[in-house]
Design brief:
mainly alpha; single chain; extended
C-alpha cells in the first residue's frame, strides 16, 4: 500500500465518520421542532445509555449472568445508590472504580 493510498483512506474514513454528525446539524438547525417531538427526542440519550449499561452489567461475557459471581452487578449496586443519593458524576465514578478495584483484588 502506497503513501497516497493511506492518505486517501484516512480522508475517506474521516469524511464517512464526520458526515453523520455534521449533516443533521447543518440541515436541521434552521427548523423549530414541535414540542412533543423535542420531548420524545430528549428520552433517546438516556435510553441508549441505560441499554448499554444494562448489557455491560448483566451480560459482561456475552451471555446474561445473573449469578452471585457476577462482580459487575455487585459494583453496579453501590454505584447506583451513590448516583441516586448525590446526583454527582464524580462520586458515582469514584465509587464504581473503587468498588471494582476491591472486587477484582479481594473478593469474587
Amino acid at each position: 500500500m502506497s503513501g497516497t493510498d493511506i492518505w486517501v483512506m484516512i480522508v475517506g474514513v474521516s469524511i464517512v465518520s464526520m458526515l453523520p454528525r455534521v449533516l443533521p446539524v447543518a440541515l436541521f438547525t434552521r427548523y423549530e421542532f414541535p414540542e412533543p417531538l423535542k420531548r420524545w427526542l430528549s428520552f433517546i440519550a438516556p435510553a441508549v445509555l441505560g441499554s448499554l449499561t444494562a448489557v455491560s452489567v448483566l451480560a459482561p461475557e456475552g451471555f446474561i449472568d445473573l449469578s452471585i459471581h457476577n462482580r459487575y452487578i455487585w459494583a453496579f449496586l453501590p454505584t447506583l445508590l451513590v448516583a441516586i443519593k448525590t446526583r454527582s458524576l464524580f462520586y458515582s465514578l469514584l465509587v464504581g472504580i473503587v468498588t471494582m478495584a476491591l472486587l477484582y483484588n479481594y473478593f469474587l
